[in-house]
Amino acid sequence: MNRLISLIALMLILLLQSCDTKKTTKLDIPVITPEYFVNKAFSLSYIADDVEYIPLDSKVLFRHYMSVQFDDSLFFLSTSPKGVLVFNKEGKYLRQIGRRGRGPGEYTHGNKITLDKDNHRLYVNDLRKILIFNYKGSLIREFSIDTEFNSHRLYYLNNKLIGIKGLSFSMNYQPYNWFLFDTLGNILFKKSNSIKRTATKNIMRGGFGNFSYLYNDKIHYWNHFNDTVFELNNKDYRARYLFKKDKYRITPEVTSDMDVFFGKTKHLLLQGIFENNNNLYLLYRRNGNTQFCIYDKIEHTFINTIIYSPVNREESYKRGLINDIDGGVPFLPNPISIFNMNGREYLIKQINACDFIDYVNGKEFKNAKPKYPEKKKTLIKLANSLDEKDNPVLMLVRLKK
After folding, report:
1. pLDDT given for residue 355 in this prediction
2. What is the pLDDT of residue 2?
3. Rounded to whole angstroms, how far apart are CA atoms 192 and 277?
4. Residue 316: other Cβ atoms inside 10 A
5. What's the CA gap between 51 and 349, in Å, rounded?
6. How far is CA 370 from CA 43, 121, 361, 373, in A?
């Protein structure tokens, strides 16, 4: 009898420990809310330790790019209006991949691109099809997709394609958050949208953010109505971060208010998230200001700064963190442009040639006292070499380790 009682007691202890472990695991997931943000003004050197500039060859002119991929010293830019262009690390134009059109091997937009770096393949996600090219520009194949599988962002990972859907801010309801298919176009998995169709009927057409990022070879997904940042692993997914269910959360009920849509209210209107080994980075709008917050994964603290206020009425290219490294153009972190080069992580900003020239010849640059003042001479030399109608300059910001 005593043995039976002891056995029951031991089982109860193990059960309680198991429950407590699950509770602890849940609590260990970092929670995001403006309530925890500590305001502190900081400049670019707070997150980065170097800046490089690459003037892009103007042999083929384009206005701007929508997405960029980097591999093997090559930049692949999805540009408007030329399509996918390839430049080397020095900015020399190499080739165009595919072309605009509606025929075989052509794409009408081609805004979303991703790379299979092992096999040197480029995937172009068009409205109703996906095209596969090699790095030299030869078409390998293409396959059709239903419009419901036209992604807002496309990834290649582990010999599979992952399409990310954001939220629909129109009458066109998005049935899926993300989906998985093989390189022949066969659907392997679809994650259903948990937000009901009626919940989004009054939301304005448009985009609230980028909805995904890549970290540690894992895709991470979020949207404003879910309370979770998910890490995706084929058909499985798990919570990495949580958004606190508080007055700052955006819900379907508040999005009919246009002030919420434009980030003029107290709500946390995220525009993008990215991550590295030390930090989680949040770009968002709130109370009318564009803001940038860093979550320190070691210290478990949130440091927040305002990087643009409409009161200042700055030109768009001047909005961002003050560039105290070389005194150049301020840097607005772009969550979709993070990439790895030579074992280091970089963010990219495109600067129109006319804006670069204007800034270097302006009062802010002349009065700047950066950490590396000798670099100002390099920027002056670069500005003097540019024509206002040249292609954009790539600004590469190296994140701290």
Report:
1. 97
2. 52
3. 30
4. 10
5. 11
6. 11, 41, 16, 5
Residue 149 per-residue DSSP state: G
* Whole-number Cα distances in Å, 401 to 19, 72, 218, 343: 37, 21, 19, 10
In this prediction, the residues of the chain whose per-residue pLDDT falls under 70 are 1-27, 167-173, 197-209, 312
Joined together, the tokens standing for residue 182 give 């093989």
Residue pair 43/322 in contact (Cβ under 8 Å)? The answer is yes
Distances in whole angstroms, Cα of residue 263 to Cα of each of 248, 290, 397:
11, 8, 27
R_g (Cα) of the chain, nearest Å: 23
Q: Has domain 32-399 been given CATH number 2.120.10.30?
A: yes
Residue 47, amino acid: I
pTM attached to this predicted model: 0.88
Structure tokens at 399: 């994140």
Give the amino acid at 269.
L
Residues near 202 by Cβ (< 8 Å), separated by ≥ 6?
A: 255, 256
Residues 278, 299: Cα–Cα separation, whole Å: 9
Amino acid at 126: D
Q: Where are the domains of the chain?
A: 32-399
Position 237, amino acid: Y
Is omega for the bond preceding 81 within 30 degrees of 0, making it cis?
Answer: yes
Taking phi over 0 as left and psi of -120 to 50 as alpha, with beta for the rest, 309 belongs to beta
What's the pLDDT at 257?
A: 86
pLDDT at 344: 93
* Residue 368 tokens, joined: 């700047």
What DSSP character marks residue 131?
E
CB 4 within 8 A of CB 216: no
- What percent of the chain is helix, strand and coil (3-state, nearest 5)? 20, 40, 40
- The arrangement of strands across the sheet holding 228-233 comes to 31-32, 236-243, 228-233, 218-221, 212-215
| Beta sheet of 48-55, edge-to-edge order | 48-55, 393-399, 344-351, 339-341
Count of helix runs (H) and strand runs (E) in the chain: 5, 28
